[in-house]
Write a structure and sequence with these properties.
This protein has 279 residues and is of the alpha/beta class. The protein has two domains: 1-100, HUPs (Rossmann fold, 3-Layer(aba) Sandwich); 132-279, HUPs (Rossmann fold), CATH 3.40.50. It is 45% helix and 20% strand. The protein is built from ten helices and ten strands. It has helices at 13-29, 45-66, 81-92, 106-111, 115-122, 149-161, 178-182, 187-208, 225-236, 258-265; strands at residues 4-8, 32-40, 72-79, 96-99, 127-129, 140-144, 166-173, 219-222, 240-244, 270-274. The chain has a ten-stranded mixed beta sheet with strand order 3-2-1-4-5-10-9-6-7-8, sandwiched between helices. α3 (81-92) packs parallel to α5 (115-122). The chain is elongated, with a radius of gyration of 20 Å. Belongs to the universal stress protein A family. InterPro entries: Rossmann-like_a/b/a_fold, Universal_stress_UspA, UspA.
Length: 279
């Protein structure tokens, strides 16, 4: 149950996307919304004071255009953006954190973790990256389906966010030497062979797990997971992709997982990162 949502913004146009989507989700779910901006305490004090005052005014005015029917509050605090966002999530008992996409810095993104990835790694709640400028309700949702507890959690949360939406599970497989085998005419046969195990896993997943009624048949396709999910989302006109975070939460977890990381670096639409409760 999503009762409290935090929408974190750095006051950029990317942060505006998070605030817009935060209001849309809070309105749909009748949830409490906290619009949070952390002013970096490494800045000189006079600059912090100016930014804080201007942020209160601009966020207040922006929220008034979005807040009809939503119980919300604006908070502008001084601190460490990463640590204090994570701390606020825990302190407020938030059920969902909404952030905008990170600023594109191609070289640096290749060699180090982005702020959004670091927050997602440390947070103990699902993180919704709002990348779509259209905050309309989700009608089709693409779910990264590896048949794990994370995928199950993702299906359940997707159904909460958009009760009437079609949830399309997508499972990807890698077929070795497919290009070489295409010349001999054996590529399709090999693809069918590699599909047998995921088809069986999909059947077991559905038989043994409580899944939403709106879950569609699983699509099994060849290719890299992140690019395949993005391609399906474009083809299906989906405005949300759901993937699992994988791994442990906390300071000592080295990284998010390749699929979640790739989706956050280049989100084709909104991306929801989920993890099984307690992981």
């Amino acid at each position: 149950m999503i009762n409290t949502i935090i929408a974190a913004t750095d006051l950029s146009h990317r942060g505006d996307l998070a605030v817009r989507r935060g209001f849309a989700v809070a309105r749909a779910l009748k949830a409490r919304l906290i619009v949070l901006s952390i002013v970096d305490d490494a800045l000189p004090l006079p600059i912090i004071a100016d930014i804080t005052q201007n942020a209160q005014k601009s966020l207040g005015a922006f929220a008034q255009t979005l807040g009809d029917g939503v119980k919300y509050e604006i908070r502008v605090e001084r601190g460490d953006p990463t640590g204090d966002i994570v701390a606020s999530v825990e302190r407020e008992g938030a059920d969902l954190l909404v952030m905008g996409p990170h600023r594109d810095r191609s070289f640096f993104d290749l060699v180090r973790e982005t702020t959004a990835q670091r927050i997602t790694r440390l947070a103990k709640v699902p993180v919704l990256m709002a990348a779509d400028r259209d905050e309309r309700p989700y009608e089709t949702i693409v779910l990264g389906a590896d048949f794990s507890p994370n995928a199950t959690a993702g299906a359940g949360l997707a159904a909460q966010l958009a009760p009437g939406a079609r949830i399309l599970p997508v499972h990807t497989i890698q077929v070795p030497y497919r290009g070489m085998l295409a010349q001999s005419g054996n590529a399709d046969e090999l693809l069918r062979s590699f599909s047998k195990e995921p088809i069986q896993n999909d059947r077991q997943w559905r038989d043994s797990t409580d899944l939403p009624d709106t879950l569609a048949d699983t699509v099994i396709i060849e290719g890299g997971a992140a690019s395949a999910l993005a391609d399906v989302a474009r083809r299906e006109d989906a405005h949300l992709i759901v993937v699992g975070a994988h791994g442990r939460v906390g300071q000592h977890r080295a990284f998010l997982g390749s699929v979640a990381s790739d989706m956050m670096r280049n989100p084709p639409c909104d991306v929801l990162i989920v993890r099984q409760q307690g992981t």
